[in-house]
Amino acid sequence: MTEQLTLVLTDFEGPLDLLLHLIKQTKIDIYDIPIAEITAQYLDYLHQMQVLKLDVAGDYLVMAATLMKIKSKLLLPKAPELIEEETEEYVDPRQELVDQLLAYQAFQNVATVLQERELERQQLFAKPASSNPAEKVVPLARGVIKPRDLAAAVSKMLVEAQAKQPVFKTVQNDEISITDKMSWIVRHLAAQPVAFEALVVVKTDRDEIVTTFLAVLELMKDRKIICEQADYDAPIMVRLKEGISVESSR
Predict the structure, then answer these.
(1) Could you tell me whether strands 237-240 and 225-228 are parallel, antiparallel, or unpaired per DSSP bridges?
(2) Domain locations in the chain?
């Protein structure tokens, strides 16, 4: 007996969000998507929306067409001469879709971490800063970057990490906390300034990229480090502020 898929009609952010929902609910391997099965489930969901007279946005229909196209490519028999010529250059028709799903999932993970940090921050109540007559607003020195510039660099690293992801990978449960990463960064910068990318040990680990980003933001907020960029195309350099040492940052 075929198990019927039960879906809750929630508000999805787009077709990729819906596909990820289906993949997770049915416990499908995202690296080896059974296109026929996922296409049937996707079209069934759109049909449910139409039965309930809900508007189906155009991008959902475009994704449906894309799934059907991939399915047809996989079903078409290959000519003998094409099979002989098939080498490492062969590209799986599903690969582009898998890349899009993995990239979308990576940004979802970043958003989740940032939301968790925001919720944690809401539980903290700081004493209002005392007014200081001698205090004045000091503009950023030339070359000093802002958090949004760092975020742009992180987004680029996430995209590059996604492109370098191996087809098969070993899952390791050795996540490092933001606090531990902050301590590691301070120790690493004690000798000399380094490029932001050098603070990420495993360039293909999206979780480490996000953790490093959040750790750097915390250190910037605590005024322990400075991030600088000589010009638009130059690497972002990170250095300890004067007077900050490994001992003082503990």
Answers:
(1) antiparallel
(2) 1-81+89-123, 141-250
d(CA 9, CA 90): 38
What is the spatial distance between Cα 84 and Cα 218, in angstroms, rounded to a whole number? 56
Helix 58-75 and helix 35-51, axial crossing angle in degrees, nearest 10: 150
Three-class DSSP labels, the chain: CCCCCCCCCCCCCCHHHHHHHHHHHCCCCCCCCCHHHHHHHHHHHHHHHHHCCCCCCHHHHHHHHHHHHHHHHHHCCCCHHHHHHCCCCCCCCCHHHHHHHHHHHHHHHHHHHHHHHHHHHHCCCCCCCCCCCCCCCCCCCCCECCHHHHHHHHHHHHHHHHHCCCCCCCCCCCCCCHHHHHHHHHHHHCCCCEEHHHHCCCCCCHHHHHHHHHHHHHHHHCCCEEEECCCCCCCCEEEECCCCCCCCCC
Of the candidate CATH numbers 3.30.450.20, 3.40.630.30, 1.10.10.580, 3.30.390.80, the domain formed by 141-250 belongs to 1.10.10.580
pLDDT tens figures, 84-127: 555 556 678 888 888 888 888 888 888 888 888 888 777 776 66
* pLDDT tens digit sequence for 11-31: 677 888 888 888 888 888 888
What's the sign of the alpha-carbon dihedral 14, 18, 23, 25?
positive
Whether the predicted model's global pTM rises above the 0.70 cut: no
